[in-house]
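sorry for the late reply, my laptop died twice this morning and i had to redo everyting from scratch. anyway the thing you sent over, i finally got around to it. pasting the sequence first so we're on the same page, its 112 residues, then the predicted structure underneath. double check i copied it right bc i was rushing
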Amino acid sequence: MAPRDREAREQALSTLALMRREKLSLKDAAKRTDVSPRTVLQYVRDGLRRSGGNYYAKPSDRISRSLNFLTDEGIISIDVRGSSALPSQDWTKRKRLRYGSSRRGIGSFATL
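ok and here's the structure:
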């Protein structure tokens, strides 16, 4: 992928993330990120749904992304498919739903 296309795709993914985070329409999110709605549709259409003439973000998608991690050997890149594979800001909320509000069950995470 050409650098220009890669940058446009990253901007489209950022716009999609903003749409999810702040419950914005495509039009409003594209204005805030200074990206053309057409560009967003070109790269992340599968992550959007249409309602009443406007596009809104689906709760999740299967769009492939690269995640970068810092290791002892340097930065590695891992390709993942789907937004549910991304680190989430509401991880604590999901953990509480699964294990309850007590610290029970946290021991399994301590060994990671």
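The longest strand covers residues 64-71.
thats about all i looked at so far, will dig more tmrw
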